[in-house]
Write a structure and sequence with these properties.
The chain is α/β, with parallel strands linked by helices. The protein has helices at about 20-35, 55-70, 95-100, 110-115, 120-135, 145-150, 155-165, 170-175, 195-210, 230, 250-260; strands at about 10, 50-55, 75-80, 105-110, 135-140, 180, 215-220, 240. It has an eight-stranded parallel β-barrel with strand order 1-2-3-4-5-6-7-8, surrounded by five helices. It is globular, with a radius of gyration of 17 Å. One of its GO terms (molecular function) is triose-phosphate isomerase activity.
């Protein structure tokens, strides 16, 4: 597990990429990182951010195997996992199953899961505990809708989402949770780029209140190379969780360069 203070840069492919396309992307990542002097097995640090990628379930095992062999410092994650270890949950995948496929991280509580698939705060908390129970890094996604921001409760709303997931955890477990702040109004094809001051309104009080309890706070939502430096300059932002701007591996590598150059 990377130490607190590590910079992070990662992407989730959502429901995109075949197995062949995923392997081609992963191969491009390996070659691109090698060209930047990132040796296999090199640990994250001030000049080498923690890189991660979250493929769809169909590509998870093959992408994990390729990266484990050639770029083991890259964390590979699953886009979701059930809170039970096994059972009659047709269509679901458990944490032991995604770990068996090579996942070392689990994306939990994305707004699309919350809106369309019934992931309440209670279910999210159960999934966080399942990931921790099996030694995986929970990537806890939180964020407010336009309506919540307009009400002025956005900072409190996001803090409540984080607390509901980490309250009651042993501090040694809570500090393994990585938070991804993704305002709902900023993500997806119709999202708008968040201004640094809008991000700060949520992240700064969140970190002041809960920052010592978690591994780090990332920002995601219409992130691109042009806007990344301002987002990384927001106090408390430890890295970026990127969507479509990173689905082309060259775009992702450009963002790796931005995060690496941002340093601390």
């Amino acid at each position: 597990m990377p130490e607190r203070g590590t910079r992070w840069i990662g992407t989730s492919w959502k429901m995109t990429k075949t197995r062949a396309e995923g392997l081609a992307w992963a191969r491009g990542l390996v070659d691109g990182l090698a060209a930047r002097g990132r040796a296999p097995g090199a640990a994250a640090g001030p000049d080498a951010p923690q890189v991660f990628v979250v493929p769809p379930a169909t590509a998870l095992a093959e992408v994990s195997a390729l990266l484990a062999g050639e770029a083991p410092h890259v964390l590979v994650g699953a886009q979701d996992a059930h809170w039970e270890d096994a059972g009659a949950w047709t269509g679901e995948l458990s944490v032991p199953q995604v770990a068996d496929a090579g996942a070392r991280l689990v994306e939990i509580g994305h707004s699309e899961r919350r809106e369309h698939f019934g992931d309440t705060d209670e279910r999210v908390a159960l999934k966080v505990r399942a990931a921790l129970r099996h030694g995986l890094v929970p990537l806890l996604c939180v964020g407010e809708t336009t309506a919540v921001r307009s009400s002025g409760r956005h900072a409190a709303h996001v803090a409540d989402q984080v607390r509901s997931a980490v309250d009651g955890l042993d501090p040694a477990d809570a500090v393994r949770v990585v938070v991804a702040y993704e305002p709902v109004w900023a993500i997806g094809a119709g999202g708008r780029r968040a201004r640094a001051e809008e991000v700060a309104e949520v992240v700064e009080p969140l970190v002041a209140d809960l920052g010592d309890r978690v591994a780090g706070v990332l920002f995601g939502g219409s992130v691109d190379v042009a806007g990344a430096p301002d987002l990384l300059a927001v106090p408390g932002v430890d890295g970026l969780f990127v969507g479509r701007a990173a689905w082309d591996v060259e775009g992702f590598l450009r963002l790796v360069d931005v995060v690496t150059g941002a340093g601390r």
